[in-house]
């Protein structure tokens, strides 16, 4: 049986919940299209999030990896295209650390592209009536850090597994504390992530359709 590893983060920046974990934990132990899903929570801490991820990768040896994170201010399911080799924190992490212009991996490549079928995921999510898009930036906080660490691990271990990162909006109960911020219902987020799992398991070659941005 194949294994799908899903990761998500603990709350940060004063939030009492993190929508990524609220959604991802519901998948733990489920079997989707013949694959077992395992959920792991990551700390919002530069010093530990990569290590927790690596331990899960080495222990589980998953076939697919979907890392999920909160993107307050975004309005749709954002499937990330690229992770860059830089930590540049706008805010301190949950341990008070705030690296600026530091590499995620010293002497690592400048960037890695997701190995998920990102455009197929976006298309399937939209067909289900849920807003989604390809994102050209995963930021420079712990989400990008984890995505880069994941793809670096896969590349350096010559793994046939495929992985990437998806950002999700605030939940409504968070957005009410951020006037004007968009949100998405938990049920829609969960539906979108299940769609992403199914597409990732069955699609080997991504769609050749436009997914870029003009700015």
TrEMBL record:
<comment type="subunit">
    <text>Homotetramer.</text>
</comment>
<dbReference type="InterPro" id="IPR036440">
    <property type="entry name" value="Peptidase_C15-like_sf"/>
</dbReference>
<comment type="similarity">
    <text>Belongs to the peptidase C15 family.</text>
</comment>
<dbReference type="InterPro" id="IPR016125">
    <property type="entry name" value="Peptidase_C15-like"/>
</dbReference>
<dbReference type="GO" id="GO:0006508">
    <property type="term" value="P:proteolysis"/>
</dbReference>
<dbReference type="InterPro" id="IPR000816">
    <property type="entry name" value="Peptidase_C15"/>
</dbReference>
<feature type="active site">
    <location>
        <position position="167"/>
    </location>
</feature>
<protein>
    <recommendedName>
        <fullName>Pyrrolidone-carboxylate peptidase</fullName>
        <ecNumber>3.4.19.3</ecNumber>
    </recommendedName>
</protein>
<keyword id="KW-0788">Thiol protease</keyword>
<feature type="active site">
    <location>
        <position position="143"/>
    </location>
</feature>
<dbReference type="InterPro" id="IPR029762">
    <property type="entry name" value="PGP-I_bact-type"/>
</dbReference>
<keyword id="KW-0963">Cytoplasm</keyword>
<keyword id="KW-0645">Protease</keyword>
<dbReference type="InterPro" id="IPR033693">
    <property type="entry name" value="PGPEP1_Glu_AS"/>
</dbReference>
<feature type="active site">
    <location>
        <position position="80"/>
    </location>
</feature>
<dbReference type="Pfam" id="PF01470">
    <property type="entry name" value="Peptidase_C15"/>
</dbReference>
<dbReference type="GO" id="GO:0005829">
    <property type="term" value="C:cytosol"/>
</dbReference>
<dbReference type="GO" id="GO:0016920">
    <property type="term" value="F:pyroglutamyl-peptidase activity"/>
</dbReference>
<keyword id="KW-0378">Hydrolase</keyword>
<comment type="function">
    <text>Removes 5-oxoproline from various penultimate amino acid residues except L-proline.</text>
</comment>
């Amino acid at each position: 049986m194949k294994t799908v590893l899903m990761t998500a983060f603990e709350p940060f920046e004063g939030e009492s919940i993190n929508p990524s974990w609220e959604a991802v934990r519901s998948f733990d132990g489920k079997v989707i299209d013949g694959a077992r899903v395992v959920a792991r929570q990551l700390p919002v801490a530069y010093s530990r999030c990569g290590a927790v991820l690596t331990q899960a990768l080495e222990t589980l040896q998953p076939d697919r990896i979907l890392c999920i994170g909160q993107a307050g201010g975004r309005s749709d399911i954002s499937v990330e295209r690229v992770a860059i080799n830089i930590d540049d924190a706008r805010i301190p992490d949950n341990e008070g650390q705030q690296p600026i212009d530091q590499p995620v991996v010293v002497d690592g490549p400048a960037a890695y592209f997701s190995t998920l079928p990102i455009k197929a995921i976006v298309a399937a999510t939209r067909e289900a009536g849920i807003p989604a898009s390809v994102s050209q930036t995963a930021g420079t906080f712990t989400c990008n850090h984890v995505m880069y660490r994941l793809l670096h691990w896969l590349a350096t271990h010559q793994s046939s597994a495929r992985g990437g990162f998806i950002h999700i909006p605030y939940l409504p109960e968070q957005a009410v504390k951020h006037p004007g911020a968009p949100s998405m219902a938990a049920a829609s987020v969960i539906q979108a992530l299940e769609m992403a799992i199914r597409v990732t398991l069955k699609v080997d070659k991504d769609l050749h359709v436009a997914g870029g941005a003009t700015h």
